Amino acid sequence: MAKVVVVGGGLGGLASAARLAKLGHDVTLLEASGSLGGALGTVREEGFTWDAGATYTLLPAALRDLFRKTGRPLETELGGELEPLEVIREHRFVDRSAVRVPGGSRGAQVAAFDELGKGLGEAWARHVDTYAPVWDVLRRSYVEAPWDPADPGPELTALIRTRETLHKRLRRDLRDDRLALVAAYPLVAEGHDPRNVPAWAGVPNYLEQSFGAWRVPGGTGRVADLLTARLATRGVTVVTGAEAGDVVVRDGRAVGVATGEGTHDADVVVVAIDPRRLPALARHVERTMPAIPPVVAHLGLEGEAPDLPPELVIHDEPLLVVRTGGTAPEGHSTLTVQGRGKIAEDLVDALARHKIDVREQVVVRVDRSPLDQVELWRGSPVGVLWQGRGTLTQRIGPRTPVPGVYVAGAHGAPGSGIPYVAQSAALVAQLVGPAG
């Protein structure tokens, strides 16, 4: 049995702690704030609640596997099934055209994009089809198995050495600018510039079309609550208010984690925050940068919210994203607005310019700047910024150059988002293995 210390109580940390405890290890989780969940948690104010980060997930198998491998199945814990989204999001463009993107159906997407213009549906489908072999390689060699940057294997090597950027791929495949905006959106929403993103990283559109998107009944914050309970069931020691200062390394190997209150001894350390915050790891990631989160405004409204899909994207300056969900007192409702780009006005005023005017309805508001989010969660919820294809080998995780130290979470996952972050914990568990 190894003594394991997990640093960070977001999804990556919670999932790592639960998996390693189930494998028989003695696990302690350190969280700097007073509560667990991180970007997976819930924002609460005056009777209103909002999802702090993601409001839906792709690849629900990642969450199901996490719960099944650590205890009772996810659906049993939720008391019901995950809810498939018929429409994942609506995109609105400056020419006042719009498209609602359905999930889990190639035919439905073809029909939706054909409404934008004749032949656009097939153009979209042909582009998305190019990612089927990409996903097959990524799934087998990178997402479901811990990869070794020194020896990635021939298929993954060929993929990651490709020089084509996402920007160039979209210009080649999609002559209509609106389709290109839709295709680039999953990466742009995370703060990346398509000119700096390798073309293969555009795979989320394939995942949406092939597997759909799913909501957690009651909000994704419920997953954090369930995992917190799972840690108690598995006997994990949880210490909140414990800011990790550094990994303690002796004779070239991790032997603990130092906090302001003392050192927690460890045979294995799992870092589920930005590794830049820990000097022992910072020098190994100095060539990378965190992706910048969006500006966020959580709104509590008097009366009914506008009738909108789960996610509305308004392609203008600034880029606006409106998400539904959350809970509210009787007679009230909720919205979350995110902004990216040149934000020269209040997000709610910007939204009103697009004929969604809720200014007179706002009774509660919680604003979070990018810096607020990074400081609150000890790292960017959208992980590492793409700065060209070399970014993949410049980041660390799940392995690190320090023996006994592993990285999970958005900064060490194959990508950001619930499925990738949940899967990062599975990769760490594979490397650590069961208690001997």
TrEMBL record:
SUPFAM superfamilies: FAD/NAD(P)-binding domain (SSF51905). It comes from the Bacteria. This is Phytoene desaturase family protein. The gene is crtI. Residues 11-432 form the Amine oxidase domain.
